[in-house]
């Protein structure tokens, strides 16, 4: 069943009855993305949270010089959305792209609000996700300001252990904030 991974993810924080699981599943949509297909483009309003069941998404921005800056990856069992856009209902700045053929489960913002009314414990679930995301993003900012590239790479390896040998080096370099050339020299030293 494609929803098992998602139900396990939810069960880490809240317990659902069988009836609640059915309501939850009825509010979800499955979607397949091909490699390099975009789930969201900057300038669009993000209307869904995406839960990855297979494959991998990356969230990135592009600066005025055309340089990509990777903010996050979502391997299986991770959620991704442009949170600014999803919450504010304004056009976002994040591009979300499939790095490979990727299966996702979508929860629309509208259905998320329905969930809060029908199964209030989902407010707790999403509050915990958002708190964890806020803490991780704050820590990432502090790390980017105070740690060396090597230290940031070590943190990346701990955060995304399944992606270390799975992603193109230029994606990892962008995430830790260095050029692919610098990243290659840094890795070759070890």
Would you kindly provide a written description of the structure presented here, covering whatever features stand out?
- The chain has 190 residues and is of the alpha+beta class.
- The protein has a single domain, classed as Jelly Rolls, CATH 2.60.120.
- The protein has helices at 4-11, 18-26, 83-88, 109-118, 121-146, 149-159, 169-176, 180-188, and strands spanning 28-33, 38-40, 48-54, 57-62, 68-74, 79-80, 95-98, 102-108.
- Strand 4 (57-62) and strand 5 (68-74) form a beta hairpin.
Structural class: alpha+beta
* Total E-strand runs: 8
* Annotated CATH topology: Jelly Rolls
The largest sheet is:
4 strands, antiparallel
Which architecture does the CATH hierarchy give at level 2? Sandwich
Radius of gyration: 17 Å
Mean pLDDT: 94
Q: Looking at the structure, what is the overall shape?
A: globular
Domain Cyclic nucleotide-binding: 31-115
Protein name: CRP-like cAMP-binding protein
Pfam families: cNMP_binding (PF00027)
Provide a compact summary of the structure:
Helices cover 46% and strands 22% of the residues.
Features:
single chain, 190 residues, alpha+beta, Jelly Rolls, four-stranded antiparallel sheet, 8 helices, 8 strands, CRP-like cAMP-binding protein, cNMP-bd_dom, cNMP-bd_dom_sf
Topology:
Elements: H1 4-11, H2 18-26, E1 28-33, E2 38-40, E3 48-54, E4 57-62, E5 68-74, E6 79-80, H3 83-88, E7 95-98, E8 102-108, H4 109-118, H5 121-146, H6 149-159, H7 169-176, H8 180-188
Antiparallel strand pairs: 1-8, 2-7, 3-6, 3-8, 4-5, 4-7
